Structures are given as structure tokens and as C-alpha cells.
């Protein structure tokens, strides 16, 4: 037992050694991992392999000498008889066999002594081996420390190398990217080079074409220079001719202007020879039911284009005898039969319209009984055509046409139009569809030193074309006052006055010309006993007859050169005083009905026109400066 107790420390020491050996048993696995790691430098791997080979080879004499101790041979324990052991173990002595039991005990002690000897030798051997292992472990630890230091250094080196590798990889990636960009740039450069090469080839071809064209142009330039030299010579000659032509043109312009002034003078002389107050007579044709009632016009005859005769057959008081027809003969400046068209009538009138452009006041008015065709003569029918246009639109058309011709002679004209009616001695503006209330129209002079008249609050329209005037005429026709009487279903109950103010200027000659063209459609004259007018119609007829009587009185006073001319007795004569005086040209249309039932009215109209035709109002003077 004591021997067993002595073995316990040895077993404890052996346990520590076993731990060391167990720790050392992990070295091969660590070595294997290190050798398999690709990141360990090759030099470290080689040295580790060399160390491993040294530790696994048999111990040499030098190794034993280094330790300073001899190797302990393995202790072979003495052979113990198994039979004895079995006897000791299996044979049980009886209690009385003390001697036998002592013998067994002695035998067991002997066996235990053998075991103790064996274990002692084994313990000694193991102690020696433990010392060797400790020495070797110490050396291994030193080597492991050195290896650890080397590994740490290598790890640092590896980390450095890995960082360097990372940088190199980054640089490599950048280099690859730059290389890719360079390749792209190279491809683009090659494409640009190819394009530029193609362009260069094209430019070379263009250069060749331009060279050929340049040679051609140089040849053409030489020819052109020769032609230019000839043209310059011709141009110089043309300049001389142009200068001569300008001088000739100026001379001809002077002659043209002189001829124009001479034409105006001769034209005025012709008009004065015809009379500054002239009378045209027009007999309208039968219309509507009149054609059924009268097959032909028997009470009117025409000797020529200047005479008209009215016939009146009077019966005796007893009714049994017919006296010879009474003739009423009248001569006028021109007489138009029922077949005369508007165009034919305007041909005679056009010369008088020309005087308005020459600077003379011109007044044309239509006079006659209700239904004699005054409005048709002056304005035309309700639906106007080129053939049926009245004197007003035809006169306007001639003026604008003539103005276009005079532009080439240096004249410039401006026009201002107005259209009024005088109804019951009250002025109304026909160009205003909805007249304002309490608006008064008064006739006044422009200034105390001027003879020019104007109407207050009247709408004066500046016109530049014939179409504008036609639109104004249509508006005025719509707004004019008409009514039905016993003589005519549609009778104009007012005097309509269209006035066109004309202003012309010749800049080069510093000449000015101004005039007023007045075209008047008088209200129908009628005898009160035949018109059967009552109430408002009666007052209209009285005002109409009064103003017509005043018109005849004014013309007679002018002809007699009386000191007082009663212009103010009527709004009509007051407005037309500048166009009725001695410094104007006046034309009166006397319109006659072809119906025999209107004989008395026709005779009165012709007698009034004849008195006007006998008047001489003096020599007219142009309004030129």
C-alpha cells in the first residue's frame, strides 16, 4: 500500500506531462494548416517543413549529448506467475488455515514487491522521459515563439502585400478602364480619320471641280469684263440720252401742265358757252299699268334733241266741236326721249362733272312732279346694275377714274362725302341710322372771311374709293323719308342732297384746287288738289312747294343780278348758295311724266324749267390758288 501511495505523485506528474503531450499533439494539425495556407510566404513554409523533418527523425548521439542525459531503456517487469496470482485470488483458505493464509499473504507481498519494483523502474524511466519531453517542449516553445514571431511578421507582410495587391488591383481596374477608354478613343479616332479621309476625298473632288469652275469663271470674267467695258460705254451714252430724255420729259411735263390748264380753260369756255346754268329735260317711259292704259304717248312730241312739244286738245263748251290742239313748245339744252338710257344721259352730264375736278362748284338737281322719275335719274332703281346706275354713282365713278389719270400728272386729291335730307325745313343726316335726340343741324360759315359752308353735328366721311361712296349711298337710300300719295305709291317727301368736297394739290407747281359737287334729288312737286294730301302729308306738300318756289325765286334773283338774293328763305337754297351763285355751274333735270293725266303738272314743270333756262348767272371762276 505504501508503494501505491508513493506512485500517486508520479501519476500526478505524469498527468501534467500528459497535458503537455496533449498540447504538443495539436502541433501537427497547426503545422498542416500553415502548410496548406497559400498566403504564407514560401520561405516560411520551407523552413517549417525542415523543422518538422528534424523533429520526426530518430534521435542521434548529438541529440542525446545535447540533453546531457542517457536514454532510459524500457523496463521490462519481472514475470509474475499467473498461477500464483490466480491461487492467491481464487483459492480461499479456511479460517483455521492461518499458516496457509500467511503463506498467501507473503506470496501477495512478494508479488506486490515485484510490481513496486516494476513501477519504480517505470516511474524512474518516465521521469527521465519527462525531463526529455520538458526539454524538448521548452525547445519547441522557443521555436514556436520564433515561428509565431516570424508568422506575425509574415502576417504583417502579407497584410502589406494584400493592401499593395488591393492597390494594384484598383490601379489595374483603372488601367483597364483607361485602356477601354483609349480603345474607344482609338476607335472613334479611326472613325473620324475615316470620315475625314472621305471628306478629304470629297474636298479633293470639290477642289478639282472648283478649279475647273474657276477656270471657266475666269474665262467668263474676261468675257464679262469685255462686255462690261462695252456696257460702260453704252451706259455713258444712255446717261447722256437719259439726261436728254429728262430734259425732254420736264419740257413735256411743262407742256402737259400747260395743256392741262389750257384744256381746263377751253373746257370752261365750252361750258360757259353752253351756259353756266343749263337745263336738261327727260321724259320717262311708260311703266307698269301705264302701258295698258296708254298704247303710245300722243300728247308729247320731239322735234330734235333740244325741243319738246306738248299737245292739249280742248273741247268746245257745248261739247260738239273739237278745237285744234294747243301746242306748247319748249327748248332746252338737251331733251331726252323715253328710250334714252342712263349711260346716254350721263355722257351729256360728264363734261360738267369734269368741271368739279377743275376747281368749279357744280350743282346738279332733279326737278319734277311726284312720280316723274327724279330719284331713278339721280340714284337709279332699288336694285342697281351697271346699266341702271343713276347720275350720282356714275359721277362718283368718273371722278375717281379721272383722279387716277391725274396722279400721273402730279395731282393728288382728297374727298369728303356727306348726305342729308331736308324734310319740312329740318335737316336730317342720312348717314346716321339712329340719330340722337335733341341734335340740331345748323348751316354755318367756316369763318367770317370764308364763303365755305358746313352743317353742325353732320357726319362728314372721308372716302378714298368709289365702293365706299356706293355704300354710303345705300345707307342714305334706306334712311330717306318716303310716303304714299294719291299721285304716286312711293313718293320722296324730302330733298336729298349729296355733297362731295374735292381738294386737289399739285406739289411741283404749288397749285391747289377745291370745289363742291352737289347732287340733289328734289322732293316731288305736286298740286294740292290732285295729291289729295291731308294732315301730315299736306304739311309736307306745302313745305316742298314753298322750298321749290324759293329755289326758282333765287335763280331768278341771281339772273336779274338783284342786290338781295333770298337764300335764307329755304334751308335748301341756303345750303346750295355757293353752288347756285355766279361762281358755279348748275344743271337742272326737269323730269316729265308720259301720262296724259299729268299734263298740267308736266306743263308747269316745263314752264318752270324754261324760266330757269333763260337765266344767265354770269361767268364762273375756278377756286384755284
Q: What features would you describe in this structure?
A:
By secondary structure, this protein is of the alpha/beta class. Helices cover 56% and strands 15% of the residues. Strands 1, 5, 6, 7, 8, 11, 14, 15 and 16 form a 9-stranded mixed β-sheet that branches. Strand 7 and strand 8 form a beta hairpin. Helix 1 runs parallel beside helix 6 and helix 10 runs antiparallel to helix 11. 24% of the residues are buried. The N terminus is likely disordered.
Give the termini distance in whole angstroms.
176 Å
Assign an overall shape: elongated
Q: Give the helix/strand class.
A: alpha/beta
Number of helices: 16
* Unreliable spans: 1-27, 54-90, 483-491
List the helices and strands and how they pair.
Elements: H1 2-25, H2 27-36, H3 42-56, H4 61-67, H5 82-90, H6 98-274, E1 277-283, H7 290-293, E2 300-301, E3 307-312, E4 326-331, E5 334-336, H8 342-357, E6 361-368, H9 374-378, H10 391-407, E7 411-423, E8 426-429, E9 443-445, E10 453-455, E11 461-463, H11 466-479, E12 482-483, E13 491-492, E14 495-506, E15 511-521, H12 528-531, H13 536-559, H14 571-575, H15 577-580, E16 584-592, H16 599-613
Parallel strand pairs: 1-5, 1-16, 6-15, 6-16
Antiparallel strand pairs: 2-3, 3-4, 7-8, 7-11, 7-14, 9-10, 12-13, 14-15
Helix pairs in contact: 1-6, 5-6, 8-10, 10-11
Amino acid at each position: 500500500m505504501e508503494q501505491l501511495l508513493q506512485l500517486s505523485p508520479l501519476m500526478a506528474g505524469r498527468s501534467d506531462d500528459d497535458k503537455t503531450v496533449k498540447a504538443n499533439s495539436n502541433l501537427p494539425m497547426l503545422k498542416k494548416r500553415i502548410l496548406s495556407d497559400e498566403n504564407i510566404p514560401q520561405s516560411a513554409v520551407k523552413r517549417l517543413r525542415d523543422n518538422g523533418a528534424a523533429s520526426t527523425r530518430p534521435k542521434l548521439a548529438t541529440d542525446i549529448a545535447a540533453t546531457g542525459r542517457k536514454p532510459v531503456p524500457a523496463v521490462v517487469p519481472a514475470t509474475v506467475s499467473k498461477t500464483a496470482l490466480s491461487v492467491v485470488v481464487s483459492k480461499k483458505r479456511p479460517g483455521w488455515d492461518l499458516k496457509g493464509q500467511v503463506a498467501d499473504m507473503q506470496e501477495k507481498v512478494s508479488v506486490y514487491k515485484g510490481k513496486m519494483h516494476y513501477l519504480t523502474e517505470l516511474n524512474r524511466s518516465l521521469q527521465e522521459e519527462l525531463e526529455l519531453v520538458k526539454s524538448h517542449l521548452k525547445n519547441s516553445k522557443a521555436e514556436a515563439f520564433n515561428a509565431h514571431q516570424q508568422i506575425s511578421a509574415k502576417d504583417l507582410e502579407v497584410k502589406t502585400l494584400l493592401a499593395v495587391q488591393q492597390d494594384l488591383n484598383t490601379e489595374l481596374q483603372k488601367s483597364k478602364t483607361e485602356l477601354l477608354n483609349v480603345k474607344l478613343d482609338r476607335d472613334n479616332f479611326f472613325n473620324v480619320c475615316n470620315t475625314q479621309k472621305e471628306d478629304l476625298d470629297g474636298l479633293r473632288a470639290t477642289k478639282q471641280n472648283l478649279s475647273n469652275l474657276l477656270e471657266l469663271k475666269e474665262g467668263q470674267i474676261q468675257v464679262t469684263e469685255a462686255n462690261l467695258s462695252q456696257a460702260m460705254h453704252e451706259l455713258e451714252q444712255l446717261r447722256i440720252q437719259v439726261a436728254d430724255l429728262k430734259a425732254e420729259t420736264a419740257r413735256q411735263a411743262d407742256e402737259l401742265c400747260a395743256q392741262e390748264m389750257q384744256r381746263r380753260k377751253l373746257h370752261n369756255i365750252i361750258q360757259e358757252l353752253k351756259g353756266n346754268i343749263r337745263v336738261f329735260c327727260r321724259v320717262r317711259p311708260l311703266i307698269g299699268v301705264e302701258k295698258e292704259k296708254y298704247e303710245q304717248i300722243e300728247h308729247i312730241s320731239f322735234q330734235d334733241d333740244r325741243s319738246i312739244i306738248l299737245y292739249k286738245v280742248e273741247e268746245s263748251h257745248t261739247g260738239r266741236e273739237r278745237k285744234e290742239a294747243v301746242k306748247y313748245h319748249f327748248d332746252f339744252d338737251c331733251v331726252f326721249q323715253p328710250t334714252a338710257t342712263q349711260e346716254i344721259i350721263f355722257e351729256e352730264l360728264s363734261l360738267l362733272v369734269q368741271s368739279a375736278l377743275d376747281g368749279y362748284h357744280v350743282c346738279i338737281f332733279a326737278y319734277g312732279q311726284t312720280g316723274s322719275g327724279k330719284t331713278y335719274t339721280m340714284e337709279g332703281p332699288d336694285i342697281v346694275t351697271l346699266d341702271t346706275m343713276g347720275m350720282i354713282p356714275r359721277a362718283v365713278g368718273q371722278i375717281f377714274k379721272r383722279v387716277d389719270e391725274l396722279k400721273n400728272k402730279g395731282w393728288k386729291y382728297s374727298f369728303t362725302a356727306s348726305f342729308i335730307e331736308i324734310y319740312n325745313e329740318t335737316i336730317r343726316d342720312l348717314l346716321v341710322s339712329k340719330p340722337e335726340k335733341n341734335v340740331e343741324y345748323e348751316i354755318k360759315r367756316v369763318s367770317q372771311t370764308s364763303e365755305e359752308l358746313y352743317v353742325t353735328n353732320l357726319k362728314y366721311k372721308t372716302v378714298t374709293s368709289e365702293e365706299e361712296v356706293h355704300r354710303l349711298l345705300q345707307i342714305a337710300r334706306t334712311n330717306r323719308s318716303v310716303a304714299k300719295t294719291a299721285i304716286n305709291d312711293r313718293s320722296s317727301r324730302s330733298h336729298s342732297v349729296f355733297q362731295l368736297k374735292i381738294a386737289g394739290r399739285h406739289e411741283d407747281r404749288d397749285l391747289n384746287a377745291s370745289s363742291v359737287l352737289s347732287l340733289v334729288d328734289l322732293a316731288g312737286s305736286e298740286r294740292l288738289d290732285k295729291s289729295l294730301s291731308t294732315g301730315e302729308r299736306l304739311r309736307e306738300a306745302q313745305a316742298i312747294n314753298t322750298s321749290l318756289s324759293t329755289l326758282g325765286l333765287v335763280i331768278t334773283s341771281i339772273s336779274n343780278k338783284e342786290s338781295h338774293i333770298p337764300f335764307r328763305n329755304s334751308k335748301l337754297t341756303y345750303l346750295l348758295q355757293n353752288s347756285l351763285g355766279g361762281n358755279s355751274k348748275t344743271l337742272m333735270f326737269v323730269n316729265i311724266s308720259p301720262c296724259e293725266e299729268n299734263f298740267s303738272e308736266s306743263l308747269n314743270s316745263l314752264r318752270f324749267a324754261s324760266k330757269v333756262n333763260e337765266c344767265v348767272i354770269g361767268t364762273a371762276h375756278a377756286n384755284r390758288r
